[in-house]
Amino acid sequence: MSTIPESVAKVRARIREAAQASGRDPQSVQLLAVSKTKPASALREAFACGQRDFGENYLQEALAKQAELADLELTWHFIGPIQSNKTRALAGHFAWVHSVDRLKIAQRLSEQRPTDLPPLNLCLQVNVSGEASKSGCAPAELAELAGAVAELPNLRLRGLMAIPEPTDDPAAQRAAFARLRALKDGLGLDLDTLSMGMSHDLEAAIAEGATWVRIGTALFGARDYGQPSR
């Protein structure tokens, strides 16, 4: 089993090689360490390797880690499904939210963002594969949603996020990511972010323009779902 420093180095090498293979600057792809179900000690190890951005899916678990790691300068991203009763805590404790798929949620985040904090960076989650079990707005509804969200105060709409249907076929992986890129480009807004790609498909995501890759298993090992607190 690899140590966290070894895993961080391996993932960074994969990102660098994928970017170079696509003719991209490796610095244009950022690593988001997905730390759900992992203890704060694991995040400290990754921090010691230079990792600063961490993504969490479960609010209560994330808040506990934030308190335990308050001595570190970390940037926190929320990447899980959002319930209306969680928006105030999200607005006050995160720099990024990647998983907004309804105007109501964006409006609440805008209203509840503390005025002493910079605008909350936002991505809209799109259900590019049309899976009934997946969160995300439908592609046909994206333009209207993005236009409304872009006008809200205290938020900065940065781009789009997707979790495509899992597949081992590189061509199918790239096709799903290409759909998200085309949707972003078609909005006609000043967006700079594509949050897409995970441990098994980051190369395909980078080839299609990912700017954040959300990596959990390849960094921290298999997740322990016996412990998460929501």
Automatic annotation (TrEMBL):
One family name in Pfam for this protein: Ala_racemase_N
Modified residues (N6-(pyridoxal phosphate)lysine): K36
Thylakoid as UniProt keyword: no
MF GO annotations: pyridoxal phosphate binding
HAMAP family: PLP_homeostasis
The protein's role, per its UniProt record: Pyridoxal 5'-phosphate (PLP)-binding protein, which is involved in PLP homeostasis.
Record's protein name: Pyridoxal phosphate homeostasis protein
Originating organism: Azotobacter chroococcum
Lineage of producing organism: Bacteria, Pseudomonadati, Pseudomonadota, Gammaproteobacteria, Pseudomonadales
